[in-house]
Amino acid sequence: MWVWGKIKQVSRISNRRAKYFFFFFFFFFFFLFCTIAVRTFIGEGLESIMADALSFLEEDLTCLICCDIFIDPVTLKCSHSLCEKCLQRFWMTQDVPQCPVCRKECSHDEPTKSLAFRALCETFKNRKPSAVSGDVCPEHKEALKLFCFEDQQPICVVCYTSKKHENHKCSPVDEAAGNLKEDLKTQMDRHQATLTELKKAQEKCVKQSELFKEHISMTENQIKKEFEKLHQFLRDEEEKHIRSFQKEMQPQDEKLKARMKELSKQISDLSEGMAAVWQDMEAENISFLQNYSDTIKRLQHSLVPNTTLRLEEYQHYHIQTIIFTTWARMQNLVEHPPVTLDPDTASSKLQVSEDCTSVRYVEVQMHNFDNPERLYVGVLASQGFSSGVHCWDVDVGESDHWMLGVVGETVNRKRLYKMDPKSRFWCLRFIDGEYKKGYKPVRYIDDSEWPSIIRLQLDFDKGELRFTEPFRNRSLCTYTGGFPERVFPYFCTGDYLKSLHLFPANKENF
């Protein structure tokens, strides 16, 4: 009887609208009946089919403005139905009332209310399966269809029209989730690049640790080898210097280990954080958006670390100096040690002998520790001079490519240099039979006059550096004008067949 009364009420609107409402009522109760039948006789396995059928009916009962089931529906003459409030809000933005769907002009008195249509919508709302609790606005019990970027949370349509979210930037949840996931993916790509840098830094740290341990082992063995040449009463000195050396090396070794441990922790923390973010991104859109603020905070806490390894580089242990000092203490007869080479300053294609008195050119680049003292080209002596008179001889043999001289302590060691005093270089070069003072030719000689011994005489206080051939009693060139800072003897060879050998100059000859 109730249904028949509703149908009669619908017929009073118009024949066409009556048929329209009758169609909805017929299908609604038909679906209702089918649902009961499915639950009772067929089982709940086919409920999804009925849900699909209800979704088609829902499309016809949905307002095209608010995208929700009609609230107080009204129908225009063009047969389009809308929520009364939605239509009024739309008309407030128009100069002439018109249908929001077909744009046909209307009058303010045109909308017709239908109690039957309203009852149908309310019945359908009550019948419509409830959304998951997390997908429903806790305040208005409406579906969460929008995402507010200002408040970083999903909201319903009622929330969107409220004062709380006035002038807030909002988007549909699917669109917002897609955009935010894309932003997160971009950040994850940056973090992946950081992770790659960390792993590369870790690999470099491991290699440097191996080189560092090799250097320690080589130096210890050399110390032992040299001290074995001494008598038994020098054993105590040997052990003392080994302990001193190990004490100097220990802080650097501990720093390397600490850095490796730090890198491992950073990699682990970043990997865990990224895994958690990926897991959040796999969640449902609503759950993802609800936890989006926490996800962002997790990424922001993953600060980009500094992957550059900073070490206070070790100094070469000057073994020859120790030996001479020990002998001097024993009998006070040994003179000051001659100029010796500092392996820590040798460039990648120069190899210094174990006793640090000769250097040779190698074609295969050596994998040396790239410490700040190391030169781009050449090698320095262990001893620097800032006063006094000093002299040393270099046996160049029959080498056709070498450079000798002194360089300033603060010279840039990581690039090619101009061989002139302005660049803190006071050098003599010999290339294919021609002497050069820096880049300027000094003289050309034939094969019979090629030098074998070159003597360097440095008078720091007078600001003078002389190059001579002592056995021919021939002066090659002289630098004057002083030295603005401490200088170190400089050596370089480009002939892989011949080495440069250093030895003390005979004082009787100068």
Automatic annotation (TrEMBL):
Gene3D superfamilies on file: 2.60.120.920, Classic Zinc Finger (3.30.160.60), Zinc/RING finger domain, C3HC4 (zinc finger) (3.30.40.10)
SMART domains: BBOX (SM00336), PRY (SM00589), RING (SM00184)
Alphabetically ordered keywords of this record: Membrane, Metal-binding, Transmembrane, Transmembrane helix, Zinc, Zinc-finger
Protein origin, superkingdom: Eukaryota
One Pfam family this sequence matches: PRY
InterPro entries: B30.2/SPRY, B30.2/SPRY_sf, Butyrophylin_SPRY, ConA-like_dom_sf, PRY, SPRY_dom, TRIM/RBCC, Znf_B-box
Residue ranges crossing the lipid bilayer per the database entry: 20-42
Gene Ontology molecular function terms on file: zinc ion binding
Positions of the B box-type domain: 132-173
Residues in B30.2/SPRY domain copies: 319-509
Annotated RING-type domain residues: 63-103
Name listed for the protein in its UniProt record: Tripartite motif containing 35-14
Organism: Cyprinus carpio (Common carp)
